[in-house]
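step=encode ok
step=design start
structure_in=
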């Protein structure tokens, strides 16, 4: 076989693999992943793409409309806010805050909830009863009201919001990890590991956790979306991320006073929030479909 023929065969095999891949045939994963990638690229490249400093105030340029409206210009493509700050630049830097809060919250709550779920599912008995009692108590508490009260008492800041949300959104991880662990803890390879003298920690980390990760990743994406929405709600109420940080919730709160005459001040950050949360939910739903037993069949 010539090199050209070998190269053609390799390319053909890759095309067959991609064509048969469930990821490439699942529109939810494709569309959600593409949308998340767009927001992530905008957030990472904000220092390069942003036309202005998002914190620079210019009262002479306040409340400029977007370029497609009468009086708008390409100098401020999405207009300016009540302080004369460029809306497009603040929107780009706001994506950084939303993604940072979503990812950080999901990692904190994921580590806490997965650890508790693994312990409850593997050890069972009294350990399971205690952990599930804690989960039941957590489920009886309204998350956003507790977050509102705690942030109001402690004080709003980016770090506080991340920590509070991370400690409030762990229960889904615990329930999923416990359920999957209970299904596999008595399988043959787990019994073989016990017979070989492996410690419980090693069995949990090397034998059980890899089989739980696919479900945890799905919960991770959905928790990110919940954290972003809750952060925007807290910031809208004035107790979350504090100005002058360009949080999308703050932008909506600052624009609500002008909603009847300049509705774009609310609509633009609101659409950005909708776009990101929808993208994460599409990606999470797609991953759930692919990793389910029916999707793997």
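sequence_out=
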């Amino acid at each position: 076989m010539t090199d050209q023929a070998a190269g053609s065969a390799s390319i053909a095999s890759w095309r067959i693999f991609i064509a048969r891949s469930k990821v490439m045939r699942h529109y939810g994963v494709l569309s959600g992943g593409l949308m998340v990638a767009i927001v992530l690229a905008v957030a990472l490249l904000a220092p390069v793409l942003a036309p202005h400093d998002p914190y620079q105030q210019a009262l002479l340029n306040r409340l400029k409309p977007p370029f497609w409206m009468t009086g708008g210009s390409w100098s401020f493509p999405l207009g300016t806010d009540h302080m004369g700050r460029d809306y497009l630049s603040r929107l780009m830097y706001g994506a950084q805050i939303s993604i940072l809060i979503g990812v950080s919250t999901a990692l904190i709550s994921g580590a806490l909830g997965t650890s508790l779920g693994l312990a409850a599912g593997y050890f069972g008995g009294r350990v399971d009863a205690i952990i599930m009692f804690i989960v039941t108590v957590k489920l009886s508490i309204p998350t956003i009201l507790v977050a509102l009260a705690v942030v109001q008492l402690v004080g709003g800041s980016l770090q506080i919001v991340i920590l509070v949300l991370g400690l409030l959104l762990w229960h889904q991880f615990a329930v999923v990890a416990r359920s999957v662990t209970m299904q596999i803890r008595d399988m043959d390879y787990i019994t073989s590991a016990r017979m070989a003298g492996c410690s419980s920690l090693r069995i949990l980390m090397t034998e059980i956790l890899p089989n739980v990760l696919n479900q945890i990743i799905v919960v991770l994406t959905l928790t990110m979306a919940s954290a972003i929405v809750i952060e925007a709600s807290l910031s809208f109420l004035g107790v979350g991320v504090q100005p002058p940080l360009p949080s999308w919730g703050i932008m909506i709160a600052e624009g609500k006073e002008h909603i009847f005459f300049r509705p774009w001040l609310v609509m633009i950050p609101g659409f950005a929030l909708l776009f990101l949360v929808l993208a994460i939910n599409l990606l999470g739903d797609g991953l759930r479909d692919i990793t389910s037993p029916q999707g793997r069949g």
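step=design ok
step=annotate ok -> The chain has one domain: 34-50+72-296.
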